[in-house]
């Protein structure tokens, strides 16, 4: 019923569209309308996403359900973190699922796929930043053996930052 495939630069526009929509769905209320609009306009554009594919450690994966694109993830292999004393760790930079596909266990499937992909790259763990108000995500990651190891202010604009937890799961 679902399929996960590694994305290429050919999907940069699709990833940008999904990123924009899912960010608005999950974080659209976290700042002013202008701050959110400026952030998504800068972050979720085809050119910006395509540029990320130049980094060989960055990998995007697209999940589809019944032949419809449901979401994507972005990881970075060997992504150093000031909160973690290990070089061989993966950063789970994004795991976005469109609201229309919530409740179908697709997020869990994509998450498990990312963990296995990270392990296949001989990583020692995986880390991420999660908005402190995203209690559903924090509960999910805690249930999956992530520990809060630090805090980070996610900069949305020159005048707005949202507090995030840095969470880490060792393998």
Automatic annotation (TrEMBL):
Ranges for domain N-acetyltransferase: 2-171
Alphabetized UniProt keyword annotations: Acyltransferase, Transferase
Protein name: GNAT family N-acetyltransferase
Taxonomic path: Bacteria, Pseudomonadati, Bacteroidota, Flavobacteriia, Flavobacteriales
């Amino acid at each position: 019923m679902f399929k996960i495939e590694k994305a290429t630069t050919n999907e940069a526009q699709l990833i940008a569209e999904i990123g924009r929509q899912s960010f608005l769905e999950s974080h659209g209320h976290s700042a002013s309308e202008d701050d959110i609009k400026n952030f998504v306009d800068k972050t979720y554009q085809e050119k910006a996403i395509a540029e990320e594919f130049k980094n060989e450690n960055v990998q995007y994966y697209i999940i589809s359900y019944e032949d419809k694109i449901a979401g994507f993830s972005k990881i970075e292999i060997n992504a150093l973190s000031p909160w973690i004393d290990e070089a061989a760790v993966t950063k789970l930079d994004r795991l976005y699922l469109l609201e229309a596909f919530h409740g179908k266990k697709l997020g869990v499937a994509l998450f498990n796929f990312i963990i296995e992909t990270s392990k296949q790259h001989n990583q020692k763990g995986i880390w991420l930043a999660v908005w402190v108000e995203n209690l559903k995500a924090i509960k999910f990651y805690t249930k999956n053996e992530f520990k809060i190891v630090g805090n980070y202010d996610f900069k949305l604009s020159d005048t707005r930052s949202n507090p995030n937890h840095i969470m880490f799961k060792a393998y």
